[in-house]
User: What shape does this take?
Amino acid sequence: VAKMMEVGKINAQDFIVDLGSGDGRNVIAAAKLGARGLGVEYNNDMVELSKKNAIKEGVTERAQFVQGDMYQADFSKATALALFLLPSNLTELRNKIFNLQPGTRVVLNTFSIPDWDPDESVVLDNCTSWCTVYLNIVPAKIAGMWRTAGGIEVTLTQQYQMVSGTAKGPNGSYPITGRLRGNELTFSAAKQGEFSGRVNGNTIEG
Assistant: This one.
């Protein structure tokens, strides 16, 4: 849990949500770092245990726990998610996670989101079980047609943070490959070099 907080760079400005929060340890760890946290847990006995644990740790003002269905929960305001869920759970939640605000951090214990490669992974030393932390950063949505100030047409497709496409200009077409980290885009264009920019609505600046 400590490594999850570290990899996710959880801080006092965060609102962190844990879906299927169990005994509350992720939310409590975040609250001890100054973040506000919400745990959504279906088992009411675990919700009550989480509240008792928050009292013991002195973080009740910042750590809230509710009984509910994680698939129905509204976590759209989260700046970070801390999750210990099975791949089947993560698959069902994947679209809602992908549609969070760009830059939202999703830090995962042991199980990564199927078909969505992590941006970072860390394996704990001297660990025998539950040893891997994954981090996914929700990317901006940039699939579609773009046009540069110089009139070059750029068509992009997107698979989560991975980007590919084609640029078409007066000297022909060339392929593009790149990736997003939140709103930050880096890409290479064949024979044209490396580029970086920041997505801001319907513009990419840089």
Q: What stands out?
A: Residues 15 and 78 are 5 Å apart (CA to CA). The longest strand covers residues 172-181. The helical segments are 2-7, 25-32, 44-57, 87-98. The mean pLDDT is 96.
